[in-house]
Amino acid sequence: MESIKQIPGGVCAPKGFKAAGIHCGIAKKVDKKDLALIFSEAPGSCAAVLTTNKVQAAPIRVTQNHLANGTAQAFLCNSGNANACTLDGDKVANQMCEIAARELNIPPEDVVVASTGVIGQALSIHPVDAGMKQLVRLLDRSGGEDAARAIMTTDLLKKEISVCFEIGGAECRMGAAAKGSGMINPNMATMLAFITTDTAISPQMLRAAISTVTQDTFNMVSVDGDTSTNDMAAVLANGMAANPLIQAPGEDYDSFLKALTYVCIYLARMIAKDGEGATKLLECSVKGAKDESSARVLAKSVISSNLVKAAMFGGDANWGRILCAMGYSGAQFDPQRVSLYFSSGAGTILVCKDGAGLPFTEERAAAILSEPEIELQLVLGDGEGEAVAWGCDLTYDYVKINGDYRS
Amino acid sequence: MESIKQIPGGVCAPKGFKAAGIHCGIAKKVDKKDLALIFSEAPGSCAAVLTTNKVQAAPIRVTQNHLANGTAQAFLCNSGNANACTLDGDKVANQMCEIAARELNIPPEDVVVASTGVIGQALSIHPVDAGMKQLVRLLDRSGGEDAARAIMTTDLLKKEISVCFEIGGAECRMGAAAKGSGMINPNMATMLAFITTDTAISPQMLRAAISTVTQDTFNMVSVDGDTSTNDMAAVLANGMAANPLIQAPGEDYDSFLKALTYVCIYLARMIAKDGEGATKLLECSVKGAKDESSARVLAKSVISSNLVKAAMFGGDANWGRILCAMGYSGAQFDPQRVSLYFSSGAGTILVCKDGAGLPFTEERAAAILSEPEIELQLVLGDGEGEAVAWGCDLTYDYVKINGDYRS
Question: The complex's ipTM?
Answer without folding.
Answer: 0.77
